[in-house]
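Q: I'm writing a short methods note and want an example of a predicted protein-small molecule complex. Could you take the sequence and the SMILES for pyridoxal-5'-phosphate and return the bound structure as tokens? Please keep the output block clean; save any remarks for afterwards.
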Amino acid sequence: MQPKSNIVHLPVYKPGKPIEDVKRELGLSEVIKLASNENPFGFSNFAKSAIQEQLQQINYYPDGASVELTSALATHLLVKPEQLIFGTGSSDIILMIARAFLTLEDETIMAEETFSQYKHNAEVENAIVVEVPLVDGKHDLVAMQAAITERTKIIWICNPNNPTGTIVTNEELVAFLDKVPDHVMVVLDEAYGEYVEDPSFSNGIQLLDKYHNLVLLRTFSKIYGLASLRIGYGIGDPEIIAYINQVREPFNTTRLAQVAAKAALADDAFLSYCREQNRAGIDFINQELERLGLDYFPAHGNFVMFDAKRASSEVFQSLLQKGIVARAGWKNYPNWIRISVGTMPQNEKFIAALEQVLQEVTVQ
Ligand SMILES: Cc1ncc(COP(=O)(O)O)c(C=O)c1O
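A: Understood, no commentary inside the block.
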């Protein structure tokens, strides 16, 4: 039996190593997972109550069109309901965009080190992936614009960028969007947008009125802490959203996810708390990295990427032995590690482990 030739070489997505696996494999009693940029502060109690109430209904299919959640989110974001689409995480929106818009030999532009699923889904659709190197960990929007050809269909911008945590500013984004032809879609992935405090950061929603080719991606997996419920959304021009909706699986978001997301929207206090704790965590980690003489990218999401000055695979393994699951393995950053911001005790344990690792692993 022959699969599509373009998928044969594709890697299976490698998630951050689960805590239970690490405990079992290494015989450790305590393991801290700082590998998937999850929210270490849990999730809103409003969402918990909504889930508990909805449990009585799980024998019924969910509302495929997420009508109540759409209406609540449209009010929350001040957009029209027709501008919204929900997915099984924002990963599902990436998949649907690729499925609806990319075909054989279309070109699609993205940063060389960014969220892996843009490339993965483009390759599934047989599109040609054009990767543009980052500069100082940041999207090079000038080079990305220069890479546009008559075959370009979609440009992906991750803001803040995963794995580097850097942002493109509103000014840079507007200058870029002004030069992108109308028929080229720009997908702006704001998975970590709610964490950003830098005033130069754009809120993509403000750009939607002017740029009809712009689609935003957001998720309830990060600051809202609902990663395992799998719910994210896209925001864009109603015509584009309608096309994406045509390839959506009938019941792609669950009842529990829909009610939890709707309830979570009302809990501003939880978001503010997470933002504050995250900022304190970043400040602590940065200060400790400086003390240890290590460089890092300016972190705007809930993770920090730093130069361990040693082979990242060895640093990763050595951290793992000490019960810290980090992330490594970026082609252009062979010595860099990405660490999610944890609770303060977790951040302290990570720094203590890193300090030992730096003694054990040879400098490159
Ligand atoms: C930049 C970015 N976009 C999208 C996602 C997908 O998140 P989810 O599918 O959980 O919404 C992630 C997950 O790590 C991410 O880092």
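A: Remarks, as requested: The chain has two domains: 5-42+269-360, 45-265. The CA atoms of residues 64 and 249 lie 9 Å apart.
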